[in-house]
Design goal:
This protein is an alpha/beta fold and 270 residues long. It has helices spanning 15-25, 32-36, 49-62, 85-93, 125-153, 179-198, 215-222, 231-235, 241-254; strands at 3-10, 37-46, 69-76, 103-108, 160-166, 202-208, 261-264. The chain is 43% helix and 19% strand.
Length: 270
């Protein structure tokens, strides 16, 4: 019997989240890991129902000609709404039995850019709180709930569990006028590194995908208070999200990383 895999991706409808989803779900059938896969259940969460449905059709169409049995659950939810976060999580996992899978991969990707400008001129306390609520509190709570679920419902003898926090170079290096976003990434990195020490049952990866050509970078390019020294780095053509996603997928399946480590796109050989 082939491998039974569960994939969960937040912020899956566009950008890197979409690329990671298709990277895992639409791998070439000649790849070794794809040949081993018999069943794939995919749980996707994002704000846009239309974009999730479109992505779902892409996944199902790709797998029509393969031997992989694919099932899909899409949840149009706002993960920045902390009052509803627990109920959203419960909905996502209410019909999923973790112990029924050989491989479980949770990609904690959802987040926002927030305010770009000097730390001394953040626009409002409300705005800062909203960004931190989404990028930090929501992300950490989702990982915490997932870890609890793994402890209660998984089989440590037969199952491999991977938790991927989408990080950034900004988690480890200061960039002027990007302080709030960087603070969120640094907090996420440290929390997930701590989880790795506390829970050897879960293999944890902080993955920095590199500067990507996405809608988010268009926001950065248009930001009126972005430090001038950063403009050349963002004005050039950046990394295709699909390229970064492929490196991540290959790394996860190779399992050649230390749990809790911060791995950058440029650290991985092609």
């Amino acid at each position: 019997m082939g491998m039974q895999m569960l994939l969960i991706v937040t912020g899956a409808s566009k950008g890197l989240g979409k690329a990671i989803t298709t990277g895992f779900c639409c791998m070439d059938s000649s790849e070794q890991q794809r040949q081993q896969l018999d069943r794939l259940h995919v749980v996707l969460a994002a704000r846009s129902a239309n974009l999730l449905e479109e992505l779902g059709r892409t996944i199902m169409h790709h797998n029509e000609s393969t031997k992989v049995r694919v099932t899909l659950s899409c949840f149009a939810v706002d993960l920045s709404d902390l009052d509803q976060l627990d109920s959203h999580f419960d909905r996502m996992f209410q019909e999923v039995n973790l112990s029924g899978f050989d491989r479980v991969v949770f990609v904690n990707n959802a987040g926002s850019l927030g305010y770009l400008g000097p730390c001394s001129s953040s626009p409002s306390l409300t705005g800062m709180k909203a960004t931190i609520d989404f990028n930090v509190t929501s992300a950490l709570w989702l990982s915490s709930r997932f870890a609890q679920l793994v402890q209660e419902n998984s089989n440590p003898d037969t199952q491999k569990v991977t938790l991927i926090n989408i990080s950034s170079l900004l988690a480890v290096e200061a960039f002027p006028t990007m302080g709030i976003y960087a603070a969120g990434k640094a907090a996420r990195d440290n929390y997930h590194a701590t989880m790795a020490k506390e829970m050897p049952r879960i293999k944890v990866l902080n993955y920095a995908p590199g500067p990507l050509e996405t809608d988010m970078v268009e926001e950065i390019r248009a930001a009126p208070k972005l430090d001038k020294s950063l403009k050349p780095a963002f004005d050039k053509k950046l990394i295709d999200p699909q390229d970064s996603a492929k490196k991540l997928v290959d790394l996860v399946f190779s399992d050649k990383f230390e749990s809790g480590s911060h791995v950058d796109y440029y650290d991985i050989s092609s």
